[in-house]
Amino acid sequence: MNDNTIQLQGNILTSDGWIAGSIGFSDMIAEIKGEAQEQTPASGDYILPGFIDLHVHGGGGKDIMEAGDAVHVVSRLHARHGTTSMLATTMTAPAEELEAALGAIGRACRGRRPGSARVLGAHLEGPYINPGKLGAQPDFAIAASLEQIDWLRSFAPLKLITIAPEINGHMQLVKTLSQLGMRVQIGHTLGTYEDGVAALKNGAAGFTHLFNAMSSFHHRQPGMAGAALAHAEYAELIPDLLHVHPGAIKTALRAIPRLYCVTDSTAASGMPDGEYMLGRQVVHKCLGGVRLGDGTLAGSTLTMDQALRNLVSLGLDLAEASLRVSTYPADYLGMQERGRLKEGCFADILVLDRRLKLKAVYVEGEKIDLVDA
After folding, report:
1. Is 213 flagged in the annotation as binding?
2. Digit-coded pLDDT (tens) for 89-128
3. What b/e string do you get for 359-368 counting C-beta neighbours within 10 Å, with b at 16 or more?
4. What is the four-CA torsion angle of 214, 167, 90, 345, rounded to 10 degrees?
5. Which residues are catalytic?
6. Annotated binding residue at 136?
7. How far apart are CA 313 and CA 211, in angstroms?
8. Where substrate is bound, by residue (predicted)?
């Protein structure tokens, strides 16, 4: 270690379990040392890996589809709530709007601004969805083509693509994209249980906001939600306790081994009640939620620190909750150097008090200003 190394003391959640000791780092973790603990420590601060959010539409009053500097405002807001890396997520929109948004995301991926989360790439949530299951997406759904996806990939790294597999031609495309090494998620879909099983067999990797905007579970027609519960290794879920009932969250936790959490956050995150934009849609923040004028849930105001607290409130121990907001999303994207506290990994580090309130956030070793968080 050198003179620039930062040292923190506390209860460190490592890949091998809890250690009471110290962690030394600059931009990368250099050393972790201390005494192993058999269970969650009974006193002192917690030191956890930074949160990884794979579904972020906005925050701080800005929406990713605004392009320009919006992605930087969004990544700064979420860094103040412990998100150290994220996927900027698009909405269903005409091609020229997607090009502008992805262009801005691509530029953000090339260099992280101080005080911000690392933008890893884009989650393309639409336009390749079922027009009968738009949720809060604008009505610009189209059938996918490999040619258009290749064109969109030229603007930003497409880390995730949400697709409704039941649309004509999409099942073959799921297979093709998966063979090319791309992560395809099933979402905004009216597909059957059988469609879900077939999509997974053809390489689909997960499900977009499990239970929301998909055919629901019934014991005689298990739907896409049933396919996820019966067969998925990974799926994302919004744990704001509005999108999914706590009982359904517990069901998913028992059924899906690597269920991980996302915010699906909007421009309203970190902002007072009022009107905001979600792509082309006007949304209303009130009573802790975000809705369209007709009452449809339209993303969330959730931040990942609150997601962690919500999981613990449902009965998860802190180590398991951390897996579902940090390690599993990193694993899903194949990133072994993030989402865990281990020597040689990025110094994406959180310090939390006994109430799980953030005391410090480090993104690649940079300490983030938590004022107004």
Report:
1. yes
2. 999 999 999 999 999 999 999 999 999 999 999 999 989 9
3. eebbbbbbeb
4. 80
5. 264
6. yes
7. 20
8. 136, 212-213, 220, 243, 297-299
Residue at token pair 């990193």? 330
Percent above pLDDT 70 for the chain = 99
* Long-range interactions of 179-186: CB distance < 8 A, separation 24+: 179/203, 182/158, 183/159, 183/332, 183/333, 184/160, 185/160, 185/161, 185/236, 186/162, 186/214, 186/224, 186/227, 186/228
281-286 vs 289-291, strand pairing mode: antiparallel
C-alpha 3/C-alpha 14 separation (Å) is 24
Residue 232 marked in a binding site: no
> What single-letter amino acid sits at 338?
R
Question: Residue 170, class by beta-carbon neighbours within 10 Å (0-12 exposed, 13-18 middle, 19+ buried)?
Answer: buried
Reported as half-sphere exposure (CB side, CA atoms, 13 A), residue 273 has a value of 4
Task: Read off the pLDDT band of 4 (50, 70, 90).
Answer: confident
Query: Is 299 annotated as contributing to ligand binding?
Result: yes
Task: Report the C-alpha gap between 237 and 208 in whole angstroms.
Answer: 7
For the chain, which residues make up each domain, given as ranges?
50-339
pLDDT (0 to 100) of residue 126: 87
Q: What's residue 371's pLDDT?
A: 72
Q: What is the mean pLDDT of residues 325-335?
A: 98
Q: Which residues pair with 62 in a beta bridge?
A: 59
Buried b (16+ CB within 10 A) or exposed e, 266-289: bbbbbbeeeebbbbbbebbbeeeb
Say if pTM beats, i.e. exceeds, 0.85.
yes
Supply the pLDDT for residue 1: 55
Q: According to the annotation, is 212 in a ligand binding site?
A: yes
Tokens of 174: 């799921």
- Asked if 266 and 276 touch (Cβ cutoff 8 Å), the reply is yes
Q: Is 11 annotated as a binding residue?
A: no
CATH for 50-339, among 3.40.50.10300, 3.30.1360.20, 3.20.20.140, 3.40.50.200? 3.20.20.140
Window from 44-53, 269-278, 333-342 with minimum mean pLDDT: 269-278
